[in-house]
């Protein structure tokens, strides 16, 4: 008896991902280790000193972790309210952090001692950084100001004003200790220089509330993030826009550099981290996370990538260098030694068995039959269709439902599966058709299903219920929209062919171009619209 051939649900093969050196490089990051903190992870920063500890600012403390052991080694908890933006100095000996108390605190990392407290802001300080000369601290506050502090004397040197909203992002120039950059919720990025005055050197409009700003290592280019965009600006020409990176579909919350400044990383609430090539500003890789990303940091030589999430998780990924162990590379195949239990009537075979005393048989894995294939085996077409119209299959794997429609059509059982349905089951079929008939992968099959439905229920629309009647009207409207879209595309194609033909004639090319024509919409679709109307 011939074996039953299961339904082919692999209608559309996914294109293979292009393997690039960046893909191979970033895929060497191992399985993430997750640490749970109390509250959202506001900021993450790596120490430049070996062994490259990283500071996690969360709740009312700043915890310093070891990237090797994933355990906290220091706990800076001199805060009464929420701490923000703990960042290391370039020598890794000191750490500054803001907070909800409107103060900027300076800690000795080794002894955990509180060395300085800078007072002067009237609202929360969300970001603070050491300048390149190591003797000043720049702070960015919700009181709409930016302040520059002197570490030895604990005095405020400059106050920069002009913003109209919370200043939640900031950066200091890597080449100039007097230049700071501020990003505000008023959608502006301002550059200040302490050598001139409190007025900004220039102002650029990001177009959305600014969540993060960052200088590139040269100091002549800076990056701003806010909304769903990352924008690159030229600081030497007064803030000329160089590039717009629109790879996220939710708010971009953090920026950082990697690979010695050759790669830019952006984290977003869409749970993705995008990696860009700084030379071309094109995305080269994507790192996925299970929760919205709030903060991001990369250690030297890209050995460790740490991301902080909204739900208080710290994700630590360490780079896996060297070849995989032999046990991991070895193909796992189960074998059974059954030589001692198999009888044989062949003398030669018996001789071979006596010499080796075993036969190696590969272990067979039984394939589980799906519900719709079980119904198809029994010619229960209606039940097979019901099994693929459940919400999980419709929402997650619509190609399975379309594959079954195609299989029923091939078996000439589509009419039997669709006939004799009540208003509720008929409505579920119509909703599926309305939802996916515009998808170019499913259009041809669903047009046949719609025609069959109309043939069966066209003369009895008043008997199928008001909900199904409304869905038939919605389907007709959907098909009209698809026809209008097709006409628009055909008009656009004609205009493009005229432009291309004119450019080829101007170049002196006498060879006639052979335009490709789009096929008009299926006549069955037009007949369906006319019939329902």
What distance lies between the first and last C-alpha atoms, to the nearest angstrom? 50 Å
Name the beta content range: 25-35%
What share of residues is helical? 25-40%
The coarse silhouette is elongated
Tell me about the largest β-sheet.
4 strands, antiparallel
Tell me about this structure:
The protein is built from 12 helices and 30 strands. With 533 residues, the chain is of the alpha+beta class.
List keywords for this structure.
about 525 residues, alpha+beta, four-stranded antiparallel beta sheet, about 30% strand, elongated
Give a short overview.
Helix content is 26%, strand content 32%.
Topology:
Layout: H1 21-26, E1 33-36, E2 41-46, E3 54-58, E4 61-65, E5 72-76, E6 83-88, E7 94-99, E8 103-108, E9 114-119, E10 125-130, E11 136-141, E12 146-150, E13 155-160, E14 167-172, E15 179-184, E16 188-193, E17 202-205, E18 210-215, E19 221-226, E20 229-234, E21 240-245, E22 252-258, E23 263-268, E24 272-277, E25 282-288, E26 293-298, E27 304-309, E28 313-318, H2 326-329, E29 335-337, H3 347-356, E30 360-362, H4 371-377, H5 381-387, H6 391-396, H7 398-410, H8 414-418, H9 423-436, H10 443-457, H11 466-506, H12 523-532
Antiparallel strand pairs: 1-28, 2-3, 3-4, 4-5, 6-7, 7-8, 8-9, 10-11, 11-12, 12-13, 14-15, 15-16, 16-17, 18-19, 19-20, 20-21, 22-23, 23-24, 24-25, 26-27, 27-28, 29-30
Helix pairs in contact: 4-5, 7-10, 9-11, 10-12, 11-12
């Amino acid at each position: 008896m011939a074996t039953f051939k299961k339904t082919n649900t692999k209608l559309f093969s996914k294109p293979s991902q292009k393997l690039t050196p960046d893909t191979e490089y970033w895929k060497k990051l191992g399985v993430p280790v997750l640490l749970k903190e109390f509250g959202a992870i506001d900021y993450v920063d790596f120490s430049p000193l070996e062994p490259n500890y990283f500071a996690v600012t969360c709740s009312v403390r700043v915890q310093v972790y070891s990237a090797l052991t994933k355990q906290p080694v220091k706990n800076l908890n001199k805060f009464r309210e929420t701490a923000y933006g703990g960042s290391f100095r370039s020598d890794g000996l000191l750490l500054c952090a803001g907070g909800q108390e409107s103060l900027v605190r300076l800690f000795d990392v080794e002894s955990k001692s509180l060395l300085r407290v800078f007072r002067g802001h009237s609202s929360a300080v969300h970001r603070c950084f050491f300048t390149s000369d190591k003797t000043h601290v720049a702070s960015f506050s919700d009181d709409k100001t930016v302040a520059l502090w002197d570490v030895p004397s604990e005095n405020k040197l400059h106050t920069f004003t002009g913003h109209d909203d919370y200043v939640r992002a900031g950066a200091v120039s890597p080449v100039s200790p007097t230049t700071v950059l501020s990003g505000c919720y008023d959608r502006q990025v301002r550059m200040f220089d302490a050598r001139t005055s409190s007025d900004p050197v220039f102002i650029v409009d990001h177009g959305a509330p600014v969540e993060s700003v960052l200088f590139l290592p040269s100091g002549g280019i800076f990056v701003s993030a806010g909304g769903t965009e990352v924008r690159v600006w030229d600081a030497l020409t007064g803030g000329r826009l160089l590039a717009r990176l629109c790879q996220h579909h939710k708010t971009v919350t953090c920026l950082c550099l990697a690979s010695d400044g050759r790669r830019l990383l952006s984290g977003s609430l869409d749970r993705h981290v995008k990696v860009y090539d700084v030379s071309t500003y094109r995305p080269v890789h994507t790192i996925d996370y299970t929760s919205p990303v709030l903060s991001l940091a990369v250690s030297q030589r890209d050995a460790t990538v740490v991301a902080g999430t909204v739900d208080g998780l710290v994700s630590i990924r360490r780079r896996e260098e060297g070849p995989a162990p032999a046990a991991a590379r070895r193909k796992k195949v189960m074998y059974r030694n059954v030589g001692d239990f198999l009888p044989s009537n062949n003398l030669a075979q018996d001789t071979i068995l006596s010499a080796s005393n075993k036969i190696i048989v590969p272990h067979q894995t039984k394939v589980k039959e799906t519900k719709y294939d079980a119904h198809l085996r029994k010619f229960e077409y209606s039940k097979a269709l019901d099994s693929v119209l459940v919400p999980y299959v419709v929402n997650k794997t619509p190609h399975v439902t379309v594959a079954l429609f195609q299989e029923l059509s091939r078996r000439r059982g589509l009419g039997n599966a669709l006939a004799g349905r009540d208003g509720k089951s008929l409505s579920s079929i119509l909703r599926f058709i309305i939802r996916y008939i515009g998808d170019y992968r499913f259009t041809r099959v669903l047009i046949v299903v719609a025609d069959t439905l109309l043939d069966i229920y066209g003369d009895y629309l008043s008997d199928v219920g008001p909900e199904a009647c409304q869905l038939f009207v919605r389907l007709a409207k959907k098909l009209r929209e698809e026809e209008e879209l097709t006409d628009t595309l055909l008009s656009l194609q004609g205009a493009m062919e005229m432009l291309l033909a004119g450019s080829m004639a101007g170049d002196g090319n006498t060879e006639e171009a052979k335009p490709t024509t789009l096929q008009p919409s299926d006549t069955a679709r037009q007949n369906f619209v006319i019939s329902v109307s």
